[in-house]
Specification:
Shape of chain A: globular
Largest sheet of chain A: 2 strands, antiparallel
Order of helices and strands of chain A: HHHHEEHHHHHHHHHHHH
Largest interface: A-B, 36 and 36 residues
Number of strands of chain A: 2
Strand order of the largest sheet of chain A: 1-2
Strand content of chain A: under 5%
Distance between the termini of chain A: 26 Å
Number of helices of chain A: 16
Oligomer: homodimer
Helix content of chain A: over 70%
């Protein structure tokens, strides 16, 4: 079984080439540039691991991994337009350099090219693969819409946030694993468990994301700690704080949300600590990690084959940046 | 062989249902509304005709026709964002009612759902179909990018405009026909000819579009006559006028482009007439229509099967609105 780094490298060797024609350069060059400023390639690695859990990695898994990575990058380009984000991976976003129309159109064509990679697959399960890919793509869009809807609302319940975050983040991680497992010849039973492993891991991943924004080490985090608090973002932490804070704490928290001064982050962090939100978040994360591990155990696969996935789970959950 | 109206009705009967889930309504309801405000369904009709030219219409052709129609509508929603268009089919555009983020995301999910319809196809030629669909989708995006690029340029040659318009308009008409013909079991030879028929017809269609904007009957046209002239749009007519006008005419035309007063349209139309641009446009249209008909004749299919396509070609080219 291959480790994370090996799979990252082997995916990079497959993926690191031009994906688009050269004409019109105004459309395609910004996309090549964006893709070369690579992220961690987590989803392609999950796809390859999903395959390798059941069989040697097939060429089809690389095509699928590329489709998933292109789809993910397309969502980033479009999300950045919607969120009016100036930076992505430390560099100016596509729309801020090349304008919104080109970023919009570029995202569109990147999505089309992800379907080109799906069409390279030789697997007899192409219909099942396309179905899962489409289902996931729709869910990711739904998650983004809910996220935007929530921004306009005063109250969002933990359950609603969980629904949103699963759609926006977890399902693509879960699907990447399942898509790979289909190539690996997994049974329906094993496919379901690997999907559920990914879905629960995705939730734990997001809790860690929300946690780091509040309690991360500023020297490692890379982003401004407290950014979510500053912008009144409804995170796992904030939603739980609003749901559990009582008396004076509740009053203070609501007052903080109306403020926008330099002490806001500090004030909210103090309330988080007083209410034990940090401890709660860590427990919730452990809970979802446990659920994920339970599904991994259920899978009818020898234990040693599961080691890379356990390594990846801990890598995603224990990261400090 | 079925006529245009019969096929429009039979497509409508298949297509006229909910295409998206009900949740989140903020994402999906605007799309249902947009789709119900239907256009002429030209592309689905072409797809069905492409099938019927070779065989009885198969259920697969309806799925493909729906995919093409959804793809076309997705491009309209996104184009309207890029062009900042306030109206489409006489109603406010999706982004002007629901905001740009929802229109952007809605377009995305509409594109994904077009691939859901492709996945319903039972044909053994699914790979060829997906390849052609993707190729066309990329070309349409390239055409839109070129169109935006041209807006920023002073000079565009007729050849460049032709390239742009083929990508933006013709290839989807051509592909709709070819996709249907694949379902009908057409040979590669016939597929190529039906594609070329559609591509040339598409160019003639666009010349008619440009012609109507300048010389259309205001009581029938539905849009403001001279809109392209008013906004200095580089159309077939304007490009040819700029390329052929000489001496005083050339000076007058260039002066008109710098003006923005009420007499602009009138002044440019007078130049068009003096230079015989209207006659030239009609001849050019006839030339492409002839090329299209030549490809139809080449097809190894009995003459009576071709009648609906001839009817459709004349319908598209002779329209006055």
């Amino acid at each position: 079984m291959s480790g994370i780094e090996t799979l990252q490298q082997s995916f990079e060797a497959y993926f690191n080439h031009r994906h688009f024609p050269t004409f019109p350069a105004t459309l395609y060059d910004p996309l090549e540039e964006f893709l070369s400023n690579s992220g961690k390639r987590i989803r392609p690695v999950l796809c390859l691991m999903g395959n390798e859990l059941f069989d040697e990695i097939h060429q089809d898994a690389y095509h699928l991994a590329a489709a998933v990575e292109l789809f993910h990058n397309f969502t980033l380009v479009h999300d950045d337009i919607m969120d009016k984000a100036p930076l992505r991976r430390g560099k100016p976003t596509v729309h801020s350099v090349h304008g919104e129309p080109t970023a919009l159109l570029g995202g569109d064509v990147m999505m089309v090219v992800s379907y080109d990679y799906i069409n390279k697959i030789q697997s007899p399960h192409i219909k099942k693969i396309l179905h899962l890919f489409n289902k996931t793509a729709k869910e990711v869009c739904e998650g983004q819409q809910l996220d935007m809807d929530f921004e306009k609302r005063d109250h969002v319940s933990l359950e609603e946030y969980l629904t949103m975050i699963q759609l926006k983040t977890s399902v693509l991680l879960a699907s990447s694993l399942q898509l790979g497992s289909i190539i690996g010849g997994a049974s329906d039973f094993n496919q379901q468990h690997i999907y559920e492993f990914g879905r629960n891991l995705g939730i734990a991943f997001q809790i860690q994301d929300d946690y780091l924004d509040a309690f991360g080490d500023p020297t490692k985090f890379g982003k401004q700690v407290g950014g979510d608090i500053q912008s009144n973002k409804k995170t796992f932490l904030m939603i739980h704080a609003l749901e559990t804070a009582e008396g004076e704490m509740a009053t203070k928290l609501k007052e903080s949300l109306l403020q926008n001064d330099v002490n806001k982050v500090e004030a909210v962090l103090a309330i988080y600590k007083a209410c034990g939100i940090d401890k709660w978040a860590n427990e919730l994360k452990a809970e979802y990690l446990n659920k994920a591990m339970g599904h991994l155990e259920e899978m009818a696969v020898t234990k040693n084959r599961k080691e890379s996935l356990i390594e990846l789970a801990h890598y995603l959950i224990s990261r400090d940046k």
